[in-house]
Automatic annotation (TrEMBL):
Record Pfam families: Alpha-amylase
Protein's name according to its UniProt entry: Amylosucrase
CDD domains: AmyAc_Amylosucrase (cd11324)
GO MF, one annotated term: amylosucrase activity
Transmembrane segments: none
Organism: Solirubrobacter pauli
Length: 632
């Protein structure tokens, strides 16, 4: 074997001792990623007597997974090894949905693939689908068996068949992996060594001095008394979601086995749920601890050796300076997640839409650390969760705003409580201590479709939806369409009838697919037809624009008009400038701004938006919520 990786003598001895068999490709990967796997685990568990055995089991699981890869999956491994940016290319478009709400079962999803193909989807994220505890289970985020599919949705074989179908259609499959916690009923939760427990309130009280509440309204505090263990159990989220103790190497190996199991089924991307919470430290908010990044590097190295086609997506809804490290920075550069949710962009889009001003968005994006090479953003407008108004005091201060007041304004605006608001959302988990709240509601309802009294108002709402999606599509990375946004599905109140859901208003923006509405998607006279056509234009524009490829640079630009956002991109000699008017009024932008950046205005700039360009001698006027795409 070639010594592709310089190893210190004692590590080399361990490498030789590991003696893990496999084919040539496996051997090369094992040597290449050996230290990336071993170093973080030794740092975390080196002194733990359980480590030696855990390590052996981990290596065995990795080798077995690699050996079990079909010829087709091995080809995919090779293909993605030489195309590491496969998720972020200009034709990549994601779609996110619950299996049951979209098509009943996994078999049903297979039947609906033509719909997704027609839209142009290349990546399908299915919400939690592994066996969960009976309701309430937080939409499946309380797993009882990582090796089984929820029987109501189908079987592991159905999942395999779906993955095969998707692959044949050029679509990748993303599945949730709930890393931080298990259902209280999971067999692992019978073993106190897998949990963080405390005999009395001393520990919980000490931690809670600095722990924020995730669900302050419905699940206050972060600990739950267990009669079974006669101890307090760490429960960051709901009382039935028990946090795992990652200081125990057996927990790491158990979760690694769950990951590898999904790789064996043919899953392409793992969404690592609640990644920031994996490691707890007294005196902190117990998020984003350095050890979290060691864990993620080790998980990723294990997967790179076993099944390199499988990518990691971080679900870390945290502040900008804490977010970028999930894509691998510093000593973890190139060794962590391939993708992370750009929740900062998502929040700023809605903020700009409510205020009609783009200064906060422009300056905050300009101040964000760059994405490390090889990694990319998931850009999105809505997802299954609430919108947490994560605007920091530093970011607000840069544009002379007060972060607290602006966050309160946004919560009011999107609950429909602010004078002039077009939104029909709801407050999620209002925190009585701070008066703050997050926001629930579908994209369409938040953008004004539900409140629209007439055709004119409906048209504006449609324009708002398409403007937000236009920025998400132009930004670079992998854009996600949340199921129903392509048809303008409105808030669904049916959850109020279900006692296991009624207290969680996130269900209002998780409607069932409306296939009758979908049938109207080719009728330009309907809301569905206009949204569908608008999104289709965005997908086509993205495909045709090499500058969108993630390896290019993305640069927010000042346009000289505080109501018009500017986003510039450059890649391999091609350049793109997108302008977006965030108000319901016409807005001028001086042509000098365009010329300074090397762009000329032409008629084609309005093609993606679908409205003509209103050009004057020295300026261009953007129609309400219009977006212009200029290629240079
Ligand atoms: C995630 O969200 C899921 O997306 C939620 O649907 C789950 O309820 C939750 O985990 C528990 O499994 O706090 O308000 O930084 O923000 O993990 C949603 C990440 C959440 C957290 C995120 C979490």
């Amino acid at each position: 074997m070639q010594n592709v990786h310089a190893m210190r003598a004692h590590v080399r001895a361990e490498f030789e001792a590991a003696d893990v068999a496999g084919d040539d490709a496996f051997a090369v990967r094992f040597e290449r990623f050996f230290t990336e796997l071993r170093d973080p685990l030794v740092a975390l568990y080196g002194d733990d007597p359980r480590f030696a055995d855990a390590w052996r089991r981990l290596l065995r699981a990795i080798a077995e997974t690699a050996a079990g890869r079909s010829r087709e999956l091995r080809m995919l491994d090779h293909e993605r090894e030489i195309t590491p940016d496969w998720l972020q290319r200009e034709h990549a478009v994601g779609y996110v949905t619950y299996v049951d709400r979209f098509a009943g079962t996994l078999a049903g999803v297979r039947e609906r693939l033509p719909y997704l193909r027609e839209l142009g989807v290349t990546y399908l994220h299915l919400m939690p689908l592994l066996a969960a505890r009976p309701a309430p289970n937080d939409g499946g985020y309380a797993v009882v068996d990582y090796g089984a599919v929820d029987p109501a949705l189908g079987s592991l074989d159905d999942l395999r068949a779906l993955a095969d179908d998707l692959r044949a259609s050029g679509m990748a499959l993303c599945v949730d992996l709930v890393l931080n916690h298990v259902a209280a009923e999971h067999p692992w939760a019978r073993d106190p060594a897998f949990l963080r427990t405390f005999p009395d309130r001393d520990g919980p009280d000490a931690y809670e001095r600095t722990l924020p509440d995730v669900f302050p309204d419905t699940a206050p505090g972060s600990f739950t008394w267990s009669d079974e263990h006669e101890r307090w159990v760490w429960t960051t989220f709901n009382a039935y979601q028990w946090d795992l103790d990652y200081t125990n190497p057996d927990v790491f190996v158990a979760m690694a086995e769950a990951m590898l199991g999904l790789a064996r089924v043919g899953v392409d991307v793992l969404r690592l749920d609640a990644a920031p919470f994996l490691w707890k430290r007294l005196g902190t908010n117990c998020q984003n601890q350095p050890e979290v990044h060691e864990l993620l590097q080790a998980f990723r190295a294990a997967m790179r050796i076993a099944a390199p086609a499988v990518a990691f997506k971080a679900e870390a809804i945290v502040a900008p300076q804490d977010l970028v490290p999930y894509l691998g920075t510093g000593k973890h550069e190139g060794k962590e997640c391939d993708l992370a949710y750009h929740n900062v962009l998502m929040v700023l889009l809605w903020s700009a839409l409510a205020s009609g001003r783009v200064g906060l968005m422009t300056s905050t994006l300009l101040a964000m650390p760059p994405v490390p090479p090889g990694a990319g953003w998931l850009t999105y407008v809505r997802c299954h969760d609430d919108i947490g108004w994560a605007i920091t005091p530093e970011d607000a201060a840069r544009v002379g705003e007060d972060a607290y007041l602006h966050r309160r304004f946004l919560a009011d605006w999107y609950a429909g409580d602010f004078p002039g608001s077009f939104a029909r959302g709801a407050r999620f988990q209002p925190d009585p201590r701070t008066g703050e709240a997050r926001t629930s509601g579908t994209c369409a309802s938040l953008a004004g479709l539900e409140s629209a009294p007439d055709d004119g108002a409906r048209k504006l709402a449609i324009r708002r939806v398409l403007l937000l999606y236009a920025i998400a599509f132009a930004h670079g990375g992998l854009p996600l369409i949340y199921m129903g946004d392509e048809l303008g599905l409105r808030n669904d109140t049916a959850y109020l009838e279900d006692p296991h859901k009624a207290d969680d208003n996130r269900w209002m923006h998780r409607p069932a697919m409306d296939w009758t509405a979908a049938e109207r998607r080719h009728d330009a006279a309907t809301v569905e037809g206009q949204l569908w056509a608008g999104l289709r234009r965005l997908i086509e524009a993205r495909r045709a624009t090499r500058a969108i490829h993630v390896q290019g640079t993305v640069q927010p630009l000042w346009t000289g008009n505080d109501h018009v956002f500017g986003l510039g991109r450059a890649q391999a000699g091609e350049r793109l400038l997108v302008l977006g008017n965030f108000t319901a009024d016409p807005q001028p932008v001086g042509l000098g701004v365009l010329h300074d950046h090397g762009f000329q205005l032409d008629e084609a700039a309005g093609a993606v938006d679908g409205r003509p360009v209103e050009a004057h001698q020295d300026f261009v006027v953007l129609a309400p919520y219009q977006h212009l795409w200029l290629v240079g």
